[in-house]
Amino acid sequence: MIGGIFPVFNKDVSSIATFDGEPPAVTCALFDLRAFRWAQMMIFAIEEVNTDPALLPNISLGYRILNSCSSPTNTLRAALTLARSQNEKETFSGCSPAVSAVIAEAGSSQSLAVAGILGPFQVPVSYFSTCACLSNRAKYPTFFRTIPSDYFQAKALAALVKHFGWEWIGAIQSDNDYGRNGVLAFKEEVTKFGICIAFVGTVLRTYPQEKILKVVEMIKQSTVKVILAFTPEGDFSPLMREVVKHNITGIQWLASEAWITAPQPSTPEMYRAFGGALGFVVQKMNIPNLNPFLMNINPYRDPSEPFVKDFWEIMVTYHLQRVNFRNRFGDDVFFDENGNPPASYDVINWQLRNGQVPASVCSNACPAGTRKAQIKGKPVCCFDCVPCAEGSIANSTECTACPQDYWSNERKDGCIPKTVEFLAYHEPMGVALTAVALLGASLSLLTMIVFIHYRETPVIKASNSELSCFLLFSLFLCFLCPLTFIGKPTVWTCMLRHTAFGVTFALCISCVLGKTIVVVTAFKVVHPNNKPAVGQFGPIQQRIIVCSCTLVQVIICILWLKLNPPFPDRVFKYNSKKIVLECNTGSEVAFYAVLGYIGILSVICLVLAFLARKLPDNFNEAKCITFSMLIFCAVWITFIPAYISSPGKFTVAVEIFAILSSAFGLLISIFAPKCYIILVKPEKNTRKHVMGKK
After folding, report:
1. Is beta strand 278-282 parallel, antiparallel or unpaired with respect to 345-349?
2. Residues 119 and 53 in one domain
3. Is residue 265 part of a domain?
4. Region class of 246: left (phi > 0), else alpha (psi between -120 and 50), else beta
5. Straight-line distance from the first to the last Cα atom of the chain, in angstroms, rounded to the nearest whole number
6. Helix axis angle, 108-118 relative to 177-191, nearest 10°?
7. Which domain holds residue 408?
8. What is the DSSP annotation of 541-564?
9. For the chain, how many structural domains are there in total?
10. Helix H or strand E segment including 404
11. Do residues 486 and 424 lie in contact, with contact meaning Cβ atoms separated by under 8 Å?
């Protein structure tokens, strides 16, 4: 024998008990055709089992069906009635109840009452309730479902909300176990996704109208555009009518399975406010022979048949827990450890025509290049959009710095490679410096050709032709030296540019020093008391002084390259958007030692030339050397602060400018007067004019 409890009449109109007499009789109203069909389907299923010889051979099932009026109190009364055998003393003396199982109930609160009262008798309870609270095996060890728990529906609804990107959800619940537990399960799921949920109101079919109107007013004032209604159809219908009456539109409704397929609210009038509603429903299928069975229901038909309870008495709940088979539709039927069947839903969406998915967020999505900043005291879905700093990109709730070699793009939603900067040959500055360097080298060669061609003339002889050629050759190398500073730095160019600069200028100043000493020595020869000075500083001595002074610089450069040579380096400090490629000097001590040595040679030349500046000759080379050394020293004194303060590739440009300026200063100051006499005033190119004697 199997019992069934259905809300065929779904409203309890009993009078209120006064506790001073017997409880009043139960009176039910409002015939529910849908619940009646549920009861008929139980009868149909039992007859199908009885007529199928493969399912329960030699065993027949019987049933007893009672009404619940959708009331937990009446449901409890019906459950006790089913559990009571014909002999009440037998039931409460430890014998099994009159039924082996009870199919009950349509509401979670009613099912809680049934499961609680029948649990001690080990009577399995199953049917239409979805409350996750019934999965508690400690409290309800015999409860089995034929519909998934609201836990699974809540997970499905939360996944749907996440799919559409909604972050601000309203919730309406029934004032019963179904609504409260359903919204609680949904809240737990959406919270995992960082979605905010706002409680809009509570409904119940027995609520007075003013309480329903408060919920309507809450909906009108709320900023939420997506509302979940976790209620049965009967509890939700009064609110639905008021929503339509107040012409509340623009809300995306999410429905629980209890009302999404209910026929009463599925009308054109309701569609004005609830069009587009989304929800889940347990998957349906065509059951053979069910339609004729329902169509042939006759009030004169006697549904009672002989029933056999032996099989169900032996089974109780041990075998039910281990049920696992595939039905004729290909579905696997089983119960998990909490008595839940497999969860499977169809998506329902009320639509007359397709439309756009509404947005439901408390704050609009942050634009590219900004991050979410939580507003204190507001829900987590409410936030401000804060721009990311330069060099970082937005990553949802925070800004992430780009790698060192990258910089943020204009929208700050992606990292792009930084611009690599160095003094290149093809840019205007590189072209100009290269042209000036080649011009200086060409002038040096032309001057050397002039000196070689006119080497027998008095002007050339008076200026020491050998040292002059050495000096012009060293100036030629000095003008070519800047070419190693232009272009992308490499290991070899970095080592070459500084050492070549140091050695060529040391050679140049050594030649100038030799010429200065020759001038000073020649000045001493004119006095009778200084005759021994003649021949003390001839060509051999001149070569020795030039080579020895240059050799010191060569040794410094070799030690520099050996111990801590210059190397190409990437510098990020000058500009956050650029990578500056430059040559790191390696050893700052060695670099300034090279400059210092050149400075020492320059100062010695300047002092000696200054002492010989008043020679009586018309052509006094000491004055030219003094002037050239003044220019040379002035250039390199101003170079040091400019070199230190110049950023990026301009550091290289400053160094090249100093090299070219000092080289041109030497070339013009020392050789321009001689070339002027040789080429423009040849009549002055005589011994008499050079010596300045009458």
Report:
1. antiparallel
2. yes
3. no
4. alpha
5. 155
6. 110
7. 370-417
8. HHHHHHHHHHHHHHHHHHHHHHHS
9. 3
10. none
11. yes
